[in-house]
Structures are given as structure tokens and as C-alpha cells.
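Dear colleague,

Thank you for sharing your sequence with our group. We've completed the structure prediction you requested, and as agreed, I am returning the results in plain text so they can be pasted directly into your records. Please verify that the sequence below matches your submission; if there's any discrepancy, let me know and we will rerun it promptly.
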Amino acid sequence: MARRASRRTTTLTGFDDAKPCPCGLGQPYGECCGPAHRGHAAATAEGLMRSRYAAFVLDDAAYVLRSWHPDTRPADVEPDPGLRWTGLDVLGTSRGGLFDAEGMVEFRAHYRDAGRPGEMHERSRFVRHDGQWVYWGPILTDGPLANI
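Please find the predicted C-alpha cells below.
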């Protein structure tokens, strides 16, 4: 009996579905964040946050914008050619499950900018919009821009 070759697919950015997902869960991209990038809704706020991180890694600006709440979404996002995202640590979550309307995810995203290491630490707010999780924005707790 002839052996059937496995079907490999790639993203619009050329990322192979069989490679480990950039979000860091250790699953193949095609079974992790790939479906979200192709239009399937993330089940949780953390899942959406991870898929957004993976989209930043892959320079998928269209997904980053689609997954942002229309009331807080910028007109455009420009990938920075000197910036390379290198890792993600989810530090905590609150709500954001299957039956929640809001959620919070705290994370640390590691990067290299012009070869220098750095990290971005954020507590992000996620809300349901038209039944799907979307990114609202960072949670700011002090100063003139506080939003909680």
C-alpha cells in the first residue's frame, strides 16, 4: 500500500502549519493559533492574546487589526523591520473564559530591537464583541490615562 504524503499548509506570511506555534504553547501552528489567523474565533481571552502575539511575530497586521475592538483600534499598524519577537510568558489571567464577557491577561513579551534584547509587560483587557473575543487595550491603573 502506498503511503500518503502529509498535507502541509502555510500562512499568507509563509509560516508552515507543522512548525511549533510562535505563541509558545508547544503545539503545531496549524492546531494552535493558525485557525484564529484564518478566521476561527478564539475560545478564550488568553487564546486571543496568544494568537495576537503570534500575529505580531508573523507580521500579520491584518489579523492584529481584525482582533482589536473597533472602538479602540488604530487605523493601521506598521511592522517594525528591526524588531523581532522572541518569546511570550503568560503571567496570569482573570475571567476571559467560555462564558465570560470580559477578561484580563497579564503577559511579558520578549523581543530583540536592532539586536538588543527587551521586553514588554502588559495587563490587557479583552471583551466580547459580536460574540467573539477582541482586544480592548492595556489596563492602566495609575496616572492621567488610568482606565480602571
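Summary note from our side: The chain has three helices and four strands.

Kind regards,
the structure core
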